[in-house]
Amino acid sequence: MSTLHVKMSSEQSQITHVIFDMDGLLLDTERLYTVIYEEIFQEHGIPEYTWELKQKLMGRKEIESAQIVIRETGMNITPEEWIRLLNHKSQEVFPAAELMPGAEKLVCHLFKHKIPIAVATGSPSALFELKTKRHSDFFKLFHHIVCTGDDPEVKHGKPAPDPYLVALHRFGGDIPPTDKVLVFEDAINGVLSAHAAGMKVILVPDPRLDQTKAKDANLILSSLKDFVPEDWGLPPYSSAVC
Q: What's the CA gap between 21 and 23, in Å, rounded?
């Protein structure tokens, strides 16, 4: 997938705060989700876990995803039963999750330069702890984590703007205008969420994504490794790491 650059004016690109999605963006968990879903589908006689269905689920609250799966497949199971089954299988798979290419370099760079950073993930808090078990030091670099799956302040998951607006206000102090906030996402639902919140958004998608659906993204990158901080008014990379 080629990198698509979108020209930004100098005024537009003065970013002061950065918020990250997690699954498929910081952690290689979307691939693991596919493994788990395919196994459950096979056990219930569902022929295929399609890319089209996966796109509908990415970034949503846990219960919302469960409802969509059941509606789309006709699976004879309740949303609560689906969540229990998913969580059971997750115990074996998610602790092995690796960081995505470029994630550590970018996050450490922003932390080093005191750029306020946060995470807004669709995962509930218990699942977040499971996925990040091997990377606790990395996630301590963030000012805060919003687990929209069970955060009481997040009334609606992505593609609604709630996750990113809640994440923004938890920085505290002088909250910047939303157009000074840069979001990193891997899914269309997340792009829609950030755009609805009035924020700039960079999409780092699965190569299978139809990029014509990503018109609300300000930039599309093949990898976090391709991000150029100074294009957004952020300090350029140096050789030092945190």
A: 6
CB under 8 Å to 150, separation ≥6 — which residues?
62, 124, 125, 126
* Listed residue (61, 70, 62, 64) closest to 40, CA to CA: 70
* Catalytic site includes residue 151: no
Predicted model pTM = 0.85
Q: Locate tokens 């969420």: which residue?
A: 193
- The reply to whether omega before 159 is within 30° of 0 (cis) is yes
Catalytic residue among 23, 151, 162, 186: 23
Contacting residues for 111 by C-beta, under 8 A, at least 6 apart: 117, 141, 242
CB 5 within 8 A of CB 226: no
pLDDT tens figures, 166-208: 999 999 888 999 999 999 999 999 999 999 999 999 999 988 8
Which positions ≥6 away from 2 have C-beta within 8 Å?
222
pLDDT in tens, 12-58: 569 999 999 999 999 999 889 889 999 999 999 998 999 999 889 88
CA distances from 21 to 24, 73, 126, 147, 185 (A): 8, 27, 17, 10, 5
- 3-class secondary structure, 183: strand
Angle at CA 92, nearest 5°, toward 26 and 159? 40
Annotated catalytic residue 226: no
Residue position matching structure tokens 């002061």: 16
